[in-house]
Amino acid sequence: MNAATDPREYDLDELRSRTLLSGGGAVDDSIPELARADPDLLGIALVTVEGVLRASAQADVLISIQSAVKPFLFALALQDHGPAALDLVGIEPTGEAFDAIKLESGTGRPPNPMVNAGALLTAALVDGADAASRSGRILDGLSAFAGRDLRVSESIAESEHLLGDRNHALAHLMRSEGTLVIGADEAVAVYARACAVLVDARDLAVMGATLAAGGRNPVTDQRVVGDGVARDVVSVMATCGVYDGSGRWMRQVGVPAKSSVSGAIVLAAPGVLGAAVVSPPLDEQGTSVRGHAVSDVLSHDLGLHSFRMPRG
Questions:
Q1: pTM for the predicted model, two decimal places
Q2: Which CATH code fits 12-302?
Q3: What is the tens place of the pLDDT at every residue in 231-250?
């Protein structure tokens, strides 16, 4: 790589300036805390697998992780239960909304871990004797991925729990199918607290880099999950991480990623780096509009596309 394309030298503030004025999208209003998000927020960060961190202005602004938590819940469930967890949740894309009230025909399983049904199940699979201990294990695991102690916004967790009618419906549906083995309300409460964990773009970039480095946090050098777990998680991010926009995302950006209604996108380019963009206005698929644009430029400038063809 030359200096212009070396992620260790990449000017994220210049990239931020280029994309900050682009418009479009709308801030999610499913809970009051999300509706109050700053539509002009744009923070970008990247972390190489060697542990070099680059960050733009506003990369330290805290948001709730929301659906960007899903790859890490899947990782913790796999780490705690091994390959048996793969028998309990599908891994195929759906082509439907992330909160669709639908399970796999004939199995009663969630279609994949990146939709709400799958995340409710993987959160319930994380080790713990009750909701409090399971939530504690999740918070500790997310903190290990981020390389620092994270905390939960209690007000956001409460809103997620009280206003998550579709999540309650999905949990009860899985209970009726025998897929979910803990109480429906407990499952929703655990997932709500996971979505309410506060992170910034730097945290998410470190978390993505930990997956990209095969489960080893490149900043702390801590082994968080096994390399096989990281491989499985990143694979499903590639096919399902941007919901029914995943095919378009992989063609254009070509980097496994997970979007979020809080405007976060976390990316994991295996063996190279993790990156994150935070910008609240969303497109119709629930993906950050500016985040998509930033990710496209990053992929192009740093040569990150998984299927790029050799020149000549």
A1: 0.96
A2: 3.40.710.10
A3: 999 999 999 999 889 999 99
